Amino acid sequence: PTPGRIFVQLWTGSELLGLVKIALPALSDEGILDTIRGQNCIKLADEEYPVMSAGTMSEIGKLHVVLHAGLLEGLAHLAPSTSSAEANDEACDKLHFATL
């Protein structure tokens, strides 16, 4: 589609809870070439998006998305350390579906 989009489905078991639509920005030719060369990555998103109920299409929560595009070499510096990833997982577990 134009503009580009990613659609996220949130499920619990076999029940579809919500849908999120993430619009993707247009990329510059220079940014794409640098990314293909493995020199960097491009941040496509870093914001909250509304989670819409699959049944009523009313807003039931928010999903914060950070999305980067690039080759492995360019993305390698984004990988969190194990300790910070574990701390983040613990914080997210405490908030699990708090807004849903």
Q: Ranges with pLDDT <50 over ≥5 residues?
A: 91-100
**Taking Cα atoms only, what radius of gyration do you get, to the nearest Å?**
16 Å
Strand content: 35-45%
SSE string, helix = H, strand = E? EEHEEHH
First-last Cα distance: 28 Å
Instruction: Write down the overall mean pLDDT.
Output: 80
Q: In DSSP terms, counting alpha (H) and pi (I) runs of 4 or more, how many helices?
A: 3
The number of distinct β-strands equals 4
Strand order of the largest sheet: 1-2-3-4
Secondary structure class reads alpha+beta
Largest sheet: 4 strands, antiparallel
Q: State the helical fraction.
A: 25-40%
Query: Which outline best applies?
Result: elongated
Question: What would you note in describing this structure?
Answer:
The chain is α+β, with helices and mostly antiparallel strands and 100 residues long. The protein is 25% helix and 40% strand. It is built from three helices and four strands. Strands 1-2-3-4 form a four-stranded antiparallel beta sheet. Strand 3 and strand 4 form a beta hairpin. The radius of gyration is 16 Å and the shape is elongated.
In short:
This protein has 100 residues and is of the alpha+beta class.
Question: What distinguishing features does this structure have?
Answer:
100 residues; alpha+beta; 4-stranded antiparallel β-sheet; 25% helix; 40% strand; elongated
